[in-house]
């Protein structure tokens, strides 16, 4: 199975039509979530009134920040064990996009925090600091790769950092249970099931699906770019060797 | 446009920031992909001519 997915030619053929499908479906879901979040769902006085609408941007960004780092760690693990180049290409593509969604999560969380908690940021809050650490892990991963002088060294160093850093993902998830935090407890992914009313839950889930599909499309496009850049580098090297 | 309570500025800031970051990232990724495709196509054309 791995060999099938590890073939760059098959990936290019598959992603040629799959990436646009992901873009289109993602855009439809995000726009529907936007419409629901801004115009349709009623405000929740228990959650501070209209400010809870920020949830339709912040929560998908937060889920995707954690999911993208998990994907980065899995791709790194696959490269580390089986040395499939496509896994390394996927990891390299995921990192900057994961950083963008993590930054979006941090920024929208901070904006939501000001009217809700009375502060933009709390330095000793476990949830906020663990997500900030996740952002730095993404940046560190990219910086580490860029600092290496060969692609193999970059892939190895990046993979080790990505796998070790994966320990932060469950820490983020359970930070509100393990430590004192301004952040509210989980209200969707709980052992007892979602605690949120369906009128908010469905738009939130569709919005999160839209973000995930768009993210998937962007990862595929970035992977296609990296495959082409590597082929360009090989052709240039061959041309230099040839004369 | 929808009308919100006293926190309208925070809500619009979040949705605006989200739209801006997502659109800018999508644009950057697509432009980078186009540039990579053009670079490779030009090099392959040059290689074919040399051959």
Question: What's the structural blueprint in terms of helices and strands?
Answer:
The complex is a heterodimer of chains A (243) and B (51).
Chain A: H1 2-6, H2 8-40, H3 55-82, H4 85-117, H5 126-147, H6 151-165, H7 168-178, H8 198-242
Helix pairs in contact in A: 2-8, 3-4, 3-6, 3-8, 4-5, 4-8, 5-6, 5-7
Chain B: H1 8-50
Please tell me about this protein's structure.
The complex is a heterodimer of chains A (243) and B (51). With 243 residues, chain A is mainly α. The longest helix of chain A is centred in the last third of the chain and has 45 residues, at 198-242. Chain A contains eight helices and no strands. Chain B is rod-shaped.
End-to-end Cα distance of chain A? 40 Å
Low-pLDDT ranges of chain B: none
The biggest beta sheet of chain B reads: none
Helix and strand composition category of chain A: mainly alpha
Q: Count the helices of chain B. How many?
A: 1
**Number of helices in the DSSP assignment of chain A:** 8
SS-derived structural category of chain B? mainly alpha
Overall number of strands of chain A: 0
How far apart the termini of chain B lie comes to 62 Å
Tell me the greatest interface: A-B, 39 and 29 residues
Morphology call of chain B: rod-shaped
**Proportion of β residues of chain B?**
under 5%
Mean pLDDT of chain B: 93
Query: The biggest beta sheet of chain A, please?
Result: none
Helix content of chain B: over 70%
From the alpha-carbon coordinates, what is the Rg of chain A to the nearest angstrom? 20 Å
Oligomer description: heterodimer
Instruction: Estimate the mean pLDDT confidence of chain A.
Output: 93
Helix content of chain A: over 70%
Percentage of residues in strands of chain A: under 5%
Instruction: Please compute the radius of gyration of chain B using only Cα atoms.
Output: 21 Å
Give a short synopsis of this structure.
Chain A is an all-alpha fold. Chain A has helices at 2-6, 8-40, 55-82, 85-117, 126-147, 151-165, 168-178, 198-242. The model of chain A has no long low-confidence stretch (mean pLDDT 93).
């Amino acid at each position: 199975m791995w060999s099938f997915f590890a073939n760059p030619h098959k990936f290019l053929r598959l992603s040629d039509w799959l990436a646009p499908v992901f873009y289109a479906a993602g855009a439809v879901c995000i726009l529907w979530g936007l419409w629901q979040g801004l115009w349709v769902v009623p405000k929740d006085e228990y959650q501070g009134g209209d400010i809870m609408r920020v949830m339709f941007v912040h929560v998908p960004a937060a889920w995707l920040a954690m999911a993208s780092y998990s994907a980065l760690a899995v791709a790194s693990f696959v490269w580390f064990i089986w040395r499939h180049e496509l896994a390394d290409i996927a990891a390299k593509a995921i990192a900057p996009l994961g950083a963008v969604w993590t930054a979006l999560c941090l920024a929208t969380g901070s904006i939501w925090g000001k009217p809700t908690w009375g502060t933009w940021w709390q330095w000793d809050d476990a949830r906020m600091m663990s997500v900030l650490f996740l952002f730095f892990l993404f940046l560190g991963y990219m910086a580490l790769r860029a600092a290496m002088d060969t692609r193999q060294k970059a892939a190895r160093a990046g993979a080790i950092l990505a796998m070790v850093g994966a320990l932060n993902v469950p820490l983020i998830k359970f930070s509100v249970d393990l430590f004192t935090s301004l952040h509210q407890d989980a209200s969707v992914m709980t052992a007892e099931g979602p605690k949120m009313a369906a009128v908010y839950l469905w738009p939130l889930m569709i919005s999160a699906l839209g973000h995930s599909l768009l993210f998937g499309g962007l990862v595929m496009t970035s992977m296609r770019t990296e495959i082409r850049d590597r082929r360009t580098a090989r052709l240039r090297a061959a041309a230099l060797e040839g004369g | 446009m929808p009308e919100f309570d006293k926190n309208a500025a925070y809500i619009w800031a979040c949705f605006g920031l989200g739209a801006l970051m997502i659109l800018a990232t999508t644009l950057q990724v697509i432009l980078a992909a186009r540039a990579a495709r053009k670079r490779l196509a030009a090099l392959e054309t040059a290689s074919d001519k040399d051959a």
